[in-house]
Amino acid sequence: MFDPKHTCxxxxxxxxxxxxxxxxxxxxxxxxxxxxxxxxxxxxxxxxDLGATSFVLHQIPSGILHERTTCLIGxxxxxxxxxxxAEIDEVKAKGVKVDGxxxxxxxxxxxxxxxxxxxxxxxxxxxxxxTGRGIGPTYExxxxxxxxxxxxxxxxxxxxxxxxxxxxxxxxxxxLLGVADRVSLDEHVKLLERLAPKLLPVATDTGRIVFRALKxxxxxxxxxxxxxxxxxxxxxxxxxxxxxxxxxxxxxGAGIGPTYIDGVLGVVxxxxxRVGNGxxxxxxxxxxEERLRKLGHEFxxxxxxxRRCGWFDAMVVRYSVRVNGLTGLAVTKLDVLDTFAEIPVGxxxxxxxxxxxxxxxxxxxxxGQVKPVYERLPGWQKDTSAARKLAxxxxxxxxxxxxxxDLSEAPIRYVSVGTRRDQIIEV
Length: 427
Ligand code: IMP
Ligand code: MG
Prior knowledge:
Elements: E1 8-13, H1 21-29, E2 34-37, E3 46-49, E4 54-57, E5 70-73, E6 78-79, H2 81-93, E7 102-105, E8 109-110, H3 113-126, H4 135-143, H5 156-176, H6 185-199, E9 203-204, H7 206-215, E10 220-227, H8 248-254, E11 263-269, E12 272-274, H9 286-295, E13 308-310, E14 312-313, H10 314-324, E15 328-332, E16 342-350, H11 364-369, E17 371-378, H12 395-408, E18 412-416, E19 424-426
Helix pairs in contact: 3-4, 3-5, 5-6
Bound molecules: inosinic acid and magnesium ion.
């Protein structure tokens, strides 16, 4: 999708996350100069399979696996610094050069141990099914105007003052939530003292780097995390994450305006999955769900939880086309459907009142009651994993993709037929 007129691309998840963004970013990063993560944090798990080795990246942009690219963690990310350094060590141990290639926004907010404790404590009553990585409490502090940012590490006495307030507040909240654990100011101060000399040398205004690169005609890939239906505004609230996972988040989270963006690629699975609680209208019956989970290895890359599985939901993807302004789709994991004789596709919803739903219901109670209307498309019952162009696919697989494209109202640009880097069709 990169060409001289399209130098700034966004890749987003167009369902509930885990669509295979890591793989698409890896494929596109080969042609990019910069890859930027712009929201979310260590809740993400982006799997990249190189054949001989595979990587699960949580905070480092997936572009790190291409030596030529510079990777940036933007201001919209909530950064868990301890996790980041553990991840850096892991990729370095696998032979990836990181020094001089990874920079972090000095405006990014820090996820600290007390955020993770608060996340887990809140789960006992809210039951969102979070990843427990402290994401919600850190964004809460950010919008509450009391967060700690990377830039605060430049003045540790100031950071200490912010921490004193934050730790006292965290302990009050823990008490309110009826949790016995308490957090220690001393431990947090020591942690920041330890992290500052490691973080500050790579902390900078990453938005400026992106802006300058675009001015010079370089190619920038903005890598989203999670998916549209987990967006705090557009997702299945309250069963969402705490950031804007849709393409608008790429602007605020990377520090460039919308006029710089030339295209938005939405990654969708050829079916649907979701991890965590909340409605999933096209969830399959137990037998098919287990079959999809087994064939698609549908277990969380961050938490190991089994993913809930169901059929392609065109209502979801059409909605995603709108809220993201998708200019193209990448359909992943087509090969997972290879053995099915017939494949249901959700084309619309019927509400509890028996009438068709015009759009995505705003509340999860209504969405939880809709009945998907299915079309049953013939399966192809042939192995597609070796296909490298559309013509290599069985006619029924091509008809399946054509139908997804028509229903979604966005052109398919990529089809992925396996986890490996080379198992991709460019349309
Ligand atoms: P949180 O982001 O940890 O607060 O979790 C909120 C919701 O988003 C839960 O349903 C999680 O399972 C889901 N979630 C968060 N990150 C991911 C992801 O990277 N892939 C899929 N689901 C995610
Ligand atoms: Mg994932």
